[in-house]
Amino acid sequence: MIVASSSSVFLRAGDFYFGRGEVRLRTLLGTCVSVALWHPRKRIGGMCHYLLPTRGRADGAAEGSAGLYADEVFGLFNLAVKKYKTVPADYVVKLFGGGNMFPRRTDGRRCADQPCGDSQRKACALVGCQNVAAAHGLLESCGYRIVAEDVGGEGSRQIVFDLADGSLWVSRGSAMESV
What we know:
The chain has 179 residues and is of the alpha+beta class. The protein is built from 3 helices and 10 strands.
């Protein structure tokens, strides 16, 4: 469900928004990932907040909206891009999230702030890493080009994306500690 207040829209896990105007999209990420698309000439864009790389069931019988899964949310992006008579290559794409929220509970595995390759991410047991690898693969296969990203590492991210001018802010939080 999308929660809107005046010109602010807060995206929860599974939410997707695409449009134009004086709207600020906001979300808070841990292991989840957000992809932000912006078309600078048409001044349109959108953002998603997905939870997992894939639903994991070909028959679609699992619960949950399409926006919860990377492979399905890209179908939503592609429909929106077609609706506005644009093509993926025209968009500025920014990618965020995939953080390790509980580094002390991962058997000594720690995410450094240095980038991993997607082959490492796909094989990683951490869902944040798998989410980032899914985004990279899907963006490339759909013809989008990433211009900026802040992914992996430890801790949360708060994202604010202004559809009026395409500006985007990210604020990093810390990982959770067990007490």
